[in-house]
Amino acid sequence: MEGKNLIARARQGDRDAFAELYAQIYQDLYRFALYTLKNRHDAEDVVADTVMAAYEQIRRLRSEDAFRGWIFKICSNICKRKLKEYINKTEELPDDLSASAGDLSEDTQVRAAFARLSEEERFIISMHIFAGYTSREIGKILHMNDNTVRSKENRALKKMEQFMAE
User: Fold this and answer.
1) Fewest CB atoms less than 10 Å from the CB: which of 32, 79, 141, 145?
2) Is 154 helix (H, G, I), strand (E, B) or coil?
């Protein structure tokens, strides 16, 4: 079914249409949350919270063309709140993405390198790669110049390359 038609139907309260939209975007939302939070259980919770919030607010979506950015904005805001919770936790959080150096596959190496980046670097890369935001859009979210976003993203990607070469 056509995406805009599904969104229009969902905005009118059609649960089946919203369920189809959710099925189409779930994997991308989950990957974004997982790479941002580095914890599978928290990523699942964030996606569930995102979908609930999106379902409750779908009537407020102004344009069918904005759905993907809109739902990722909700997801990123929930991820930010979760990251703030991490700061206040005193116990060590499990790191689902770490592995011993001897048995790292390329995918696991990428995840491990990603996990070593700062919170801001992970956020910028996640927003660009998984959510499809431009550097200008990320800059607005983070209140920084789009050139600064591009620069930070390039430095983060180079760091990842170095981490993987170690």
Assistant:
1) 145
2) helix
